Fold this sequence. Notes:
alpha/beta, TIM Barrel, 8-stranded parallel beta barrel
Amino acid sequence: MIRTVSIVPTILTDNKQDYRAQAERINTFTRRVQIDVTDGVFAQPPTLDVTNVWWPKNWQADLHLMAAKPSESIDTILKLNPSLCILHAEASEDLLPIFESLKKAGIKTGVALLPPTFPGNVKHYIDAVDHVLIFASQLGTQGAPADLMQMEKIPLIRNMKPEVEIGWDGGANMTNIRALAHADLDVINVGSAISKSPNPAQAFQELVAEIDKNGVVL
């Protein structure tokens, strides 16, 4: 038996008009969405600044901040009030005080792990958060292939903190979505397989249907 898995579309862009267009399309078929923001330093290329992102009030918005110094954006994040804010374990500052500030504001916390990061080395972050995001592709882009070897981190994280929500980000599409869904994940974030489809709503529904199929997954 597999866990209930959520397919979560992502938005990543440096253009305000494109951002609005993506948001309006996504709003027709789902309410949980991940907003990807880069600072142009920790991750290239730069996207819209966190001060320029927004979302409909009916969304469950996950803000994924790919930034070297996320503390510089804390005031903006608190005003935006996302459901979940995901910061990178590899950031250049201590994340624990930031997580504490977010929790006090009622915002769930998440930590993202780049491919080279071993979960055991950031246990103090994993112990502190509600969500762990396994990043398995290239930062700041959509459409790059998935590094499926990153699935090996899932049982390590699950053994460390069984109740934590575990997400996947990077390269998810129709060719691997079933394998990912059967790997004890809770969330699979999907970028280009939805955003670059001629019919994003249909692509989303096909991905959801695919993870519900039984049978051979690998």
